[in-house]
Design goal:
Radius of gyration: 15 Å
CATH architecture: Up-down Bundle
CATH class: Mainly Alpha
Amino acid sequence: MKENVIKDKSFAFALRIVKMFQFLQSGKKEFVLSKQLLRSGTAIGALVREAEQAESKADFIHKMAIAQKEANETDYWIELLFQSGYLEESSYKSIISDVIELKKLLASILLTSKGNHYGKK
């Protein structure tokens, strides 16, 4: 079976987000920002999975674009949690590098997909 890097990485990232959510809720007693992080951080992988079954190339592009927006939002929540003192620097650096990698992968997929789809006449 062919390896799907974005699918694998977005799922692994979602697991990290779930664990971070659990830590923030139980260890830091932070309930509002962590819920936002959980929602956006796990949505990335869910949208990538949805895109696998897209009805058309345009639908695939749309779902991946929403995944990219969720990755951007997740980046925001991680930054906010770090700047407000809920995340230690080591945890922040580790997870932010993962979200940056996902954003780059999604941008590349979208660029290629849009070029293939809209470049054809």
